[in-house]
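note to self — DONT lose this again. spent like an hour looking for the file last time. sequence + predicted structure for the chain T wanted, 191 res
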Amino acid sequence: MAKLYFYYSAMNAGKTTTLLQSAFNYRERGMNTLVLKPKVDDRYNPDRVRSRIGLESDAASFESEDDLLALTEKIDKKTPLSCILLDEAQFLTKTQVYALGDIVDKLGIPVLAYGLRTDFKGELFEGSLHLLAWADELVEIKTICHCGKKANMVLRLDENGEPLKSGEQIQIGGNDSYVSVCRKHYKSAGT
């Protein structure tokens, strides 16, 4: 039975690496997958998903107004799909998360969505909010703070490495812009 899964964590927990391993496992067994990523994540090639450790795969990128059910149906008619794997799921809209549920319920295709739970202000992203509410399975991927405790918060850093307290919710960046920390160190950073 197909399900909608949401794999969430703070930054640098290996979400994309886990996604790519899952895609590899499906393909190794002769099954077709569709890897999706939002175009807003422009760190690398728009048609590739790439992990920090160097693993990568072809991907179809989409805009916030794109209909993910229609996109999936079109591809599934040409090449029957066994699984949809979606990177950076926090950037989904409410409508797109709803469409992921339709992919599972109407097409019977499992959807594995990977993303951040909260932003640098400790607030939920739109996609994460609705995945937490509507996913069939929630799976936390853990990472650690510099103190050794579980990191569940993210700090955004300025050009001097100091934590920022304000700004737009979405700012694409990596280790140079963000650091995952535990709640204690998030609070002590003055956020």
